[in-house]
Amino acid sequence: MRQATSYTRTAIGLHWLVAFALLASFGLGLYMQDLPLSPDKLKLYSWHKWAGVTIFLLVLFRLLWRLTHRPPAPPADMPAWQHVAAETAHWLLYALMIAIPLSGWLMSSAKGFQTVYFGVLPLPDLLAKNKELGETLTTVHQVLNFTLAGLVLIHVGAALKHHYIDRDGVLARMLLFIKKA
Amino acid sequence: MNTVLKSVALLALLIGAPHAAEFNTLRPEQSRMAFVYKQMNVPVEGSFKRFNGQISFDPTKPTLAKAALEIDLASIDVGSAEGNDEVAGKLWFNTKQFPVARFVSASVKPLGNSRFEVAGKMSIKGRTLDASTPATFRQEGTNAVFEGSFVLKRADYGIGEGMWADFGTVANEVQIKFRLVASSVASKQ
């Protein structure tokens, strides 16, 4: 694989698609959980699950793409510890983006509500109904989500630091509509 | 006991066939009253924990069989705690005002192969409607086991009114699945 100077259009498209889907899904998840039971709440829960399955599939494709397309090299003058930190953070982001939908799916099964993708495609229940396990998995799903949220904040902070302080074009590599440095 | 009954009882004793027994006592603890409903097209299982009733079924005279069931609606489990709280409310079963659902059979029609069509009246939430269900009979040890399932349309009884009346989230059709176990208690006569 040749070392590119920018991410592929596919990688850029997937990055932003997943970013917005995650943000929307995270916000929806926070909002819906305290609603009193109503048809709207049931709808929101279903939409959240469909979004989760979609994000999971997108992330799998992203991961496949990432493994077969070498990303652009970091700036030459970037300190080694930042290089390691960036690498670690990126793989951790991938791990969380895979783990979070899975935890949601398992949680749903343990609570006795099957996930039926778009109300059409039933996903198998990997766990039998189990109240205590359902509550544990709810906590797992929440902790993973807040970990991801924290990591995304660091990710965004680092990107902005590269753009406004280092002025090294790292952020621009992930943007389609900004002139590359 | 008059002489006719006496001779019938004597005849039954003389024949001594196992089928001569009439199953006349419902065993709720061995029975099950469950259902499956769909919300957002997701099938969810539920059940009623408490119900009771009377059954009389003589396999040699099935058309004379009778069943009367009473279901304690507050014992419903729709699959989640918040769901259970919700369906007790006025929009659903309104269990404070209508605590019990009733089914009383009117006729039993043999369909062959130990299958029967049981028709009668169903009363839920102040409404009484004709209802019928297929049911199978088989003997398990000394017990009779009746199993069957039928579709109940919740809107017919006003189960799920107001914001729940729309079938877009919770479907109108609810699959009721029952397994009723009855035994013979000879001392009943």
Description:
The complex is a heterodimer of chains A (181) and B (189). Chain A is mainly alpha-helical and 181 residues long. Chain A has one domain (9-174): Up-down Bundle (Fumarate Reductase Cytochrome B subunit), CATH 1.20.950.20. Chain A has helices spanning 9-32, 39-68, 80-110, 131-166, and strands spanning 116-117, 121-122. In chain A, helix 3 packs antiparallel against helix 4. In chain A, 18% of the residues are buried. Chain B is mainly β. Chain B has one domain: Lipocalin, CATH 2.40.128. In chain B, strands 1, 2, 3, 4, 5, 6, 7, 8, 9, 10 and 11 form an eleven-stranded antiparallel beta sheet that branches. Chain B starts with a helix and ends in a 6-residue tail after the last strand. The model of chain B has no long low-confidence stretch (mean pLDDT 91).
What is the compact description of this entry?
By secondary structure, chain A is an all-alpha fold. Chain A contains four helices and two strands. The N and C termini of chain B lie close together (9 Å).
